[in-house]
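# nightly structure sweep
# worker-07 picked up a monomer target from the shared queue
# config: single-sequence mode, recycle default, output format = C-alpha cells
# input follows
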Amino acid sequence: SFTMNTYLFVYDLMQFCGHSWIFTNMIIRFMSFGKDSLADTFYSIGLVMRLCQLLSVLEILHILIGIDKSRLFPRFLQITERIIVLFVVINSQEEVQGKYVVCVLFFLWNLLDVVRYTYNMLARTGIYYLPLTWLNFSLCIPLYPLSVLAKAFAICVSLPYFESLGTYSIKLPFPFVFSIYFPYILKIYLLVLFIGMCFIIQNLFSERKAYLGTGNIKKKRS
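# output follows
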C-alpha cells in the first residue's frame, strides 16, 4: 500500500542519513588527522552507530509482518551479528573501543549500508539505476566476508579483557555448582559466526543471480 511504501521510504531515508553521516565523518576525520583519527572512531561516531544498528532491528519486524519480502533468516543473522559485536563486545570493553579494527569494521558496515539504503530508497519510488543495482548486489559479496573477519578479530582482541575483568561471567553461589565463563561463549560464537557467513554468502550469490543473472532489474524489498 501507499502508506506502507511511504513508511519504508522514510525508514530507508533515516538509515541512509545516519550511515552517510558516519561514513562522511570517518573520511573527513581521516583526511584531517590521519591515523590519529582511527583510535577515537568509536568515541566520535559510536552513538549514531548504535542508534542505526538498534533501528535496523525493525527490518526483522518488517519481514515478519510481510511488508518486506526479504528472507528472514539471512537478515536475522546479519543484524544479530552486528548487535552482538557492537553492544556486547565493543561497547562493554573500553580498551577495545580504541583499536583500529573498530574503525575498519565501521567503515565496512557503513560502506555497505550507504549503498543498500540508497538503492532501497530509489526502489521504493520505482527508480532503478543499473550501476547502483549492480553495486548493491555485487559489493556485499567481497565486503561481507571482510566484515566477518573484522568481527572475529574484534572478538579475539576482546578476549583478554573479558578474561581479566570477568565481564558477563557468572558464578552462582553454593549450593549451585554452575558458572558461565563468557570468553568460552565468545569462542563458540566465533565458530557460529563463520558457519553463518557461509550461509549468508550463499544467499548473497542467490540474490545477485536472481536480480542480475538475466540482465533484468527487479524490485528488491530489503
